[in-house]
TrEMBL record:
NCBIfam families named among the record's database cross-references: alt_bact_glmU
Gene3D superfamilies xref list: Hexapeptide repeat proteins (2.160.10.10)
Molecular function terms from GO: acyltransferase activity; nucleotidyltransferase activity
InterPro entries in alphabetical order: Bifunctiontional_GlmU_bac-type, GlmU-like, Trimer_LpxA-like_sf
Higher taxonomy: Bacteria, Pseudomonadati, Balneolota, Balneolia, Balneolales
Organism, scientific name: Halalkalibaculum roseum
Any Pfam family: NTP_transf_4
Keywords on record: Acyltransferase, Transferase
Listed SUPFAM superfamilies: Trimeric LpxA-like enzymes
Name listed for the protein in its UniProt record: Glucose-1-phosphate thymidylyltransferase
Amino acid sequence: MQICFFEDKHFSNFHPLTLTRPVDDLRVGIFTIAEKWQKALQAKNTARILRKELKEVFEEGSINENDSCLWINARYLPSSSLLKEVEELGAGNCLQSEGTVIAARADGSSSRQWLEQGKPDFNSLFVLESADFKAIEHLWDLFKINGSEIKADIQRAKPGRGSKLNISSHAILVEEENIYIATGATLEAGTIINAENGPVYIGEGAHIKAGSIIYGPTAICSKATVNAGAKIYGDTTIGPVCKVGGEVNNAIFHSYSNKGHEGFVGNSVFGQWCNLGADTNTSNLKNNYSTIRITDWKTEQEIETGEQFFGTVMGDHSKTAINTQLNTGTVCGVNCNIFSGDFPPKFIHSFSWVGSNVIQKYRLDKAFETMEAMMARRGVSLTEPYKKMMEAIFQNAR
């Protein structure tokens, strides 16, 4: 089977995270949305339609014109009910709900042409009207459904116990049958993993240092590090090659991001290559317990989330200084440097240099220097296509 992901008009609902990635690359649960579908359908060939600025940064893939192609709206998650529908979807049919295309099956020749043109054309397909299925609509959906998606990903991947494990005899595993530890993982003495309320996944090569406490459902992905004495509460994902310490509750770190020190993060989502300085704290609850309003990235107008808990959403490569305080419902763009002694604004444009009572635009050359230095520490190169993507974001930043 071959599948191709496409974005609909709502992709900007997930800015600033989707300024630097397609929707299918958003991580929720253990895996990205694309990885979920690949595992659920056991797809051998995967492609995606990319926005112009993301081409060459992400692999577009290819389509074999001799086989039909299943097109998937990247906002939709592979629930068991939707999987049944798409697996039974006949060639030339399009599944939609109230005008939103959820999935379609088209011949390989047309699909290849659509991929080359950068836009699918479902108008010629026979429409099957359907009830809606599980999808992400807003930024806050990511952390709200993270716990249930960790559980679903466990069912999809069916991970077993890995080999070459380094588990201290002084580690405590509660409900061990609900704890999944991949090959090469290390659990130091004094680690407590409590899976009474949901599964805990420890990825390949992950390192859980002494005295850490982890409650499920939680995913510690491949080569991630949980620092000594950390308190990781449920509904949390620590993405690949992240380093996290302090107190974390219901948060997602995509990959290569660091929160290595004390400080609280809750009901939040961080992109790649973020770094939170020591004792950075995110407020996730208002003092009057009212619901939280955030600034919509596209319109820059305040919108009501209807949520009582909402911390921070931070785009790739943004950083905070020590003792930074982030207000409830903060939305921070890409490549920002926050070192304010006061609460910074709740809405921060990309490439902002945020001090106390002053906000300046971050120089692009200086941003590249910092990006290159940070990425080199993890053995990742700053490529020309990646720099072009960042330059496009810089040019559009206010």
